[in-house]
Amino acid sequence: MKIGLQIPDFTWPGGPSRLGADLAGVARTADDAGFEFLAVMDHFFQIQSVGPADREMLEAYTTLGYLAANTTRAKLLTLVTGVTYRYPGILAKIITTLDVLSGGRAWLGIGAAWNEEESRGLGITFPPVAERFERLEETLQICLQMWRGDETPYQGKHYQLERPLNSPQALSKPHPPIMIGGGGERKTLRFVAKYAQACNLFPGPDLARKLDVLRAHCEAEGRDYDEIIKTCYFIFDVGDKG
C-alpha cells in the first residue's frame, strides 16, 4: 500500500501572507516522510463538503509547480482536473511542463467535471453530462497523441487541433500516468480500462462492485486489470495535535 497526501483547504491560521511558507513546509514534510503522492483539488471555489465557496482556494497547477520546487520525490497531481476547465492541448502542455520541471513526477488526474457553481461563476463552459464525457474522451486521446509526438491533425466532435505539437516532451515514459477520478460504471470506469494507469474511487459499500465493473471493462478492452493502480480517498482523524 502507498499513501498520498491531498491538500483540499488553504484557509490556514497564518492567512495568505504565510500560506506559501506553510504550504512548502507541509510539502517537504510529506516528501521527506515518504508519501508517494502530493495532490490538490482542481477547483477555483471551495467545495461545499470542505467549506463555503469564498474560502481561500489556490489554482491547482500553479500550486503544483510550487510544490515541485519544494520537493524531490513525491508524484504531483490533481484530484482531479475538470475536463472543461482547460483546452486539451493546453492541458497536455501544462502536465508536460510540470513533468519536465519536476524531473518526471507529474501525473494527469482528470474527470468529467461536476461543479457548475464555479464554472458559471467564472464563465467556464459547463455542457450537459453526456457532452462532458465526450470531451473527456477526446481530451484523453489528444493528450496521449501529443505525448506520442504525433503532430498530425486531430479532428474530434468538440476539439480540432491543426498541429498538436508538444516540445519539450515529457520525461515520464511512455507518458505521464493518467488517473481518472469517479466511479461511473458505464463510462468512467470504461475510460479507466481503455486509457488510464490509475483510478480514484471513494470508499463505501459499493466499492467492491465498482472494482468488479472495472475488471469487466478491462476484459472487454484486453487490458490487464492488475496493472491499473486503484486509489481511494480517505479522510483521517489525526487528533487535536495533528
Oligomer: single chain
The secondary-structure class comes to alpha/beta
Q: Report the sheet with the most strands, covering strand number, pairing sense and barrel closure.
A: 5 strands, parallel
**N- to C-terminal distance:** 22 Å
Q: How do the SSEs run, as a string of H and E?
A: EHEHEEHEHHEEEHEHE
Instruction: Specify Rg, calculated over alpha carbons.
Output: 18 Å
How many helices in DSSP terms?
Answer: 7
Mean pLDDT reading: 95
Principal-axis shape equals: globular
Annotation, overall tally of beta strands = 10
Strand content: 5-15%
How is the largest sheet built, in terms of strand order?
A: 4-5-8-9-10
Fraction of helical residues: 25-40%
What does this structure look like?
The protein has 242 residues and is of the alpha/beta class. Helix content is 38%, strand content 14%. Helix 7 (207-221) links the parallel strand 9 (198-201) and strand 10 (229-232). The relative contact order is 0.11.
What secondary-structure arrangement, pairings included, does this model have?
Layout: E1 4-7, H1 16-33, E2 37-40, H2 60-69, E3 75-78, E4 81-82, H3 88-101, E5 108-111, H4 116-121, H5 129-148, E6 154-155, E7 160-161, E8 178-181, H6 188-195, E9 198-201, H7 207-221, E10 229-232
Parallel strand pairs: 1-2, 2-3, 4-5, 5-8, 8-9, 9-10
Antiparallel strand pairs: 6-7
Helix pairs in contact: 2-3, 3-5, 6-7
Question: Top keywords for this entry?
Answer:
5-stranded parallel β-sheet; 38% helix; alpha/beta; 3-stranded parallel β-sheet; single chain; globular
